[in-house]
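> tool_call: predict_assembly(chains=two)
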Amino acid sequence: MLLTSVLSLLGHALLVAALLTWPVRQRNWPRGWRAAAAGAAVAVAFVPYDGVPVVGYLRGAIGDLSITSLLLLAASLFYFMTGRPLFPPHERRILLVAVAVAALLLYPFALGLTYFDSYSLGFGSYLMITALLLLTLVAWLARLWLVVLCAVAACVAYMAGLLESNNLWDYLIDPLVSVYALFVTVPWVMAAIRPPRAGGAGDTC
Amino acid sequence: MSSSIPPVLLRAGAVVAILIVFAAMYGKRLFAPQSPEFNISPAGERPVISSEPRYQVRNASHGRTQSVHSATAVETKSGKLVAFWYGGSREGARDVALYSSTFSSQTRQWGPETVVLTREQLQGQLRRYIRKLGNPVALRDAHNRLWLFFVSVSLGGWSGSSINFMVSDDEGRHWSPARRLVSSPFLNISTLVKGSPFLYSDRSIGLPVYHELFGKFGEILRLDAEGNVLDKSRLSRGRYSIQPEIVPMSARTAVGFMRHTGEPPFRILMLRTEDAGRQWSEPWKTDLPNPNAAVDSLRLDNGDLLLVFNNAEASRDDLALGYSRDQGRTWKIVHEVEPRQVDKGQGSREASYPWLMRTSDGNYHLFYTWRRTHIRHVTFNQAWLEKKR
């Protein structure tokens, strides 16, 4: 089996495991139970239906997951199994903001509304590589290791051709993580720009 | 004794790793193939097989499947014609497969239809669910290998399509496992093929594609010899133009034709580039009608153009052959390949999805879907065309 297929199907297995373990995240289960639940969820992802495993249907429907998605899913399962976050919450939050901004730069132009196509920059343009380098250096200066890890891992995977795509964008973001990032980022942005209410919380008329 | 690495060293190591990775990224970009020109093979001397005008009509398919559509063809090294199309119980059905047939130059007949690829085979090769198969297009590359690009859908209708390809080193007898082309960041859906692929001067492949999910517009994917996407350029924007057919006219000039899906008047769209496809003109409406149907075009050795199209705004019932001496500015209809039928009472009269090509013996070959039941094959020679134009 091609390495691209292995990585893609494993990524979708992580997605299935993250979704299936979501309802029991708040339960106070011992670590062994949690590991067993995660393992069972991954096994479910490879159960065949009509000759195609569950992950095959997911891959057919949504294609390969980006390296960012894979890292976030792995971190999520790590947290489920150990109770310890792999990365500080503020780093995860900043990464999601960066993903949301990238999604806004990418997807509207991919619809064909304009002649400008930001997706074509991902086929190795100097502009995109330089922008990503600057972003990574800023993240390094700010000690945002999750952002640095995602950027560097995406570049390494891109050069090694670990996904089917030859486009750097597909290694950085995908529609799944973009929708999630926009979903969680918009309320943060709204809260940040909303003017503070007159009077404190304890004020009475 | 503490074994932990001092934070300052970790930070220094991290920045070194960042710089190494990005240096490699710049290096990869630096050595990537740059924007080439179009490959215009010199016309050379064509063998004159016959000075008598010749025009023949055959069926390339023999009714093995109830429905057939979207033919493409390529010439083998030995001069045989191989045609491909998709067929099944109906368009979009789960039993649709890619079929092929070979034309024997000795018997002047098409051989039996053989299955090239089924939905189930593609599913196994791509390791994912596949719902249906669609349009194929064929190409002989600069290394003399045959390529078959084709559409597949996993979810939804044709707007959920993706493009796949297979390569053959033995003139189509065996094919490599299919690979998926990634051409869109939207779940890699809504990209289809219909127009003829072409070659660039650096041996890379130009693949005209189109999208039809939110926008309906055309693009060109440039592929290397391994099928990796090197670049893509946009041919149009908005929601009115699909199925680009690109005809290189010189190393830096090309014209394009597109199916019109927009507002009336319904006309064939044309576009043009003067810089080997780095920039394309906005598509403009020609005087030729287009009933939301595919067209195909071919550049002749003298630089004139042939165009096959449905000569009506409302239906695909007829098929005409147009001739232009001025790179598509004006057209003369030289032949009605499928004349318009007056009687409408006998089911579909569709004549559509033309594929026009010329073989090394100088003959012209036109393939098209005939009433969705057969793939029709029309052959004509230079003498016939001279007489008609």
